[in-house]
Predict the 3D structure of the following.
Amino acid sequence: MTLKLDKRLELHRMMMLIRLFEEALEEMFSRGLLHGTMHLSIGQEASATGACLALDKEDLITSTHRGHGHCLGKGADPFKMFAELLGREDGYCRGRGGSMHIADLSNGNLGANGIVAGSLTISVGAALSFQMQKKDNIVLCFFGDGAVNEGSFHEALNLASLWDLPVLFLCENNQYGMSMASDKAVAGESIASRGNSYGIESIQIDGNDVEAVFESVTNFKNEILSSNRPKFIEAVTYRYRGHSKSDRNLYRTSDEIEYWKEEKDPIKRYIGKLIESGVTEEKLKEIDEGVKELIRDSVKKALDSPMSPVTNLEEDSYA
Amino acid sequence: MPELTAGQSINKALSLILEKNQTAFLAGEDIGIYGGAFGVTEGLLEEFGSERIKDTPISEDVIAGLAVGASMTGSRPIVEMQFSDFIVNAMDPIVNQAAKLHFMYGGAVNVPIVIRGASGAGTGAAAQHSQSLESWFCHVPGLKVVTPSNAQNAYDLLLSSFVDPNPVIFMEHKLIYKVKENVTLNPIPKDSSYLGNASVAQEGTDLTVVSYSNMVNVVKEAVAMKELQNHSIEIVDLQTVSPIDFETIKNSLIKTKKLLVCQEAPSNSSVGTTVVSEVVESDLFNVLETAPKLVSGLHSPMPSAKHLESTVIPQKEDILNAIQDML
């Protein structure tokens, strides 16, 4: 698959947006502006970007506790995301969800989830709606390597396969479930092989190659719609930051982190590829400046927006 | 007006919902060709087909989870846990997902689902098939918990639970599956305002017994015993245990000034303790002529043998004794 220049620049721009969004959050956190913790996906931008940009607006995603990238990829407004983390009324959840629970229904994001594997069974239900409503759309379910040892992972895959549901399971294997290395946690051949064991065609890809992710998701989406079978992708990637803000990285070496930053970084690699193909540095700089400006403006607007008022929270618990 | 058991009246309600709402579907274990472990879904597969009466593998976690995802995307799932004890395998989708998504996402989504299950003891089904776990769910903001006591209110409460925009845990006591009564087959209501209302099952002036689920029927038997023939006992059937209708309890206590609460579940952190604490914390404390009393199941797993099982569950004699102590 040869992607058009516009699409390739869009992939680059989205990866930059995700990274700068999260770097801005880090800065705000260090300045004491944010209440609570967060889970950053810095280093994993290619899987969120490649996957989300391969979908239509009407396709749905379910996301994880490390979900800022998925949310932005599906078209969320960074201002409303910053506002959410700052507890503002304009935030996606009016300050009730925070980093871990942003949902953006208008763009087809059914929400980030604080429970590991919590969204697997939800994605199956959403796909059942699509099937019953006879819609030509899929549900893309993001989860991490930590989710594949939860019972709900297995129940969800089994049912999706039995009922021919239009789900694309996408495991972002960043190789650690908090501190637990996935090679110490996952029995059997590979995470992808678990999909195959439920009769779901499954592949393992380089999750830091944004075009590889885009192409795999595009192809699998088409196959899901033509064959009515779910599919499974294991995208191997790596997070540079700790699990959350309290992580001291005791379970891995700085050499390992440096290796991934230097040799495997998805943005750096893609810039190299774009320049090799004739995109000018000026063009990329222009895109990056646009993203920086958007982030700056969004942060400022969010900081200037009103705090979420204290309403009757017991009443807000019910529809 | 047909004579139906609660199982049959629930079947009628499900059939009406499926007929009137094309987005509604049922999912659960053995609900199709088997007709449900207690026969509640008998005939629905033939009537509505396998696309809407969905037999699932034994997978309570994904049964509840798919209900959440389906309800967020325009479908109206009613799912069955078979024995409500099995709901323990589905706690994450119910407690962490269904109950919280509306609040957590700032009101952007609703999760209108009904999760049914057969609860309670009295059938010799032993410790893992006899529990009354309703108070677990009362503790979770975002859920409603409904506990019918007879065929008529099971029918009406199920229709209202379906209409409600929130996740509803619907606990059907196994013993009400066995009792027939005349049932008025009302249409689907326009709103769910019937939920959260207690009903005065019997009027009286000397003492109020608050109860719910099948224990209401045991209370009725106790109150009908000859030892109480000269007394006037009021029976309040909560019907919905989250939220609880304290207004009806209050109005009853202003009249009777005595409160007895009866439940099959153990007392620790239960519906009964909530009712008592709410009453004694309120102005009603000054109205009461005697300390409230709670008759509960023993804090024990349910034994299998009949004589041991009946030791754990309050019997009509236990309720009679408590009433006589208080009068």
Notes: The longest helix of chain A spans residues 5-30. The radius of gyration of chain A is 19 Å.
